[in-house]
Design a protein that fits this description.
single chain, mainly alpha, two-stranded parallel ribbon
């Protein structure tokens, strides 16, 4: 198994640098379900941030990209069920993907309370109930 970092994953997804995209494509396209690549949660969070901030992907596009990674048999996503839960929260309008994944990882670890700092949600993007309901404490930026 090979681990893919955020940049390798990004070059494969975006195909925006010919030489690096070609190298990433050769590696990814040689993978199989029997010999997959590992995608860590850190790599996914970093990639989601880059796709959001640098490439200005809309929420729906970002959800589609994350779901495609999760559905690809040749990619083994670390703690995939937590990531799926975070993607669903993110899709439904909660904060950013990183905050959603942090909340899901914390809940899975048995945390009964969290302190998170997230900007107020625009009216068109309501907060997910997991971020509104007690016993979660939160502040706003």
């Amino acid at each position: 198994m090979i681990g893919l970092d955020s940049n390798a994953l990004g070059r494969y997804i975006m195909q925006n640098d010919a030489a690096q995209a070609a190298r990433a494509s050769r590696v990814v396209e040689a993978l199989s379900a029997d010999e997959p690549a590992l995608i860590t949660r850190v790599s996914l969070v970093e990639r989601a941030w880059v796709l959001d901030v640098c490439y200005k992907l809309e929420r729906a596009q970002l959800v589609t990209a994350l779901e495609a990674v999760l559905r690809t048999q040749e990619l083994l996503v670390e703690r995939a069920e937590q990531v799926w839960q975070a993607v669903r929260m993110f899709r439904d309008g909660a904060g950013d993907f990183a905050n959603c994944l942090i909340e899901r990882c914390s809940a899975a670890a048995g945390c009964t309370r969290m302190l998170i700092s997230i900007p107020p949600a625009p009216a068109a993007r309501p907060m997910h109930p997991a971020f509104r309901a007690n016993p979660i404490d939160f502040t706003t930026c």
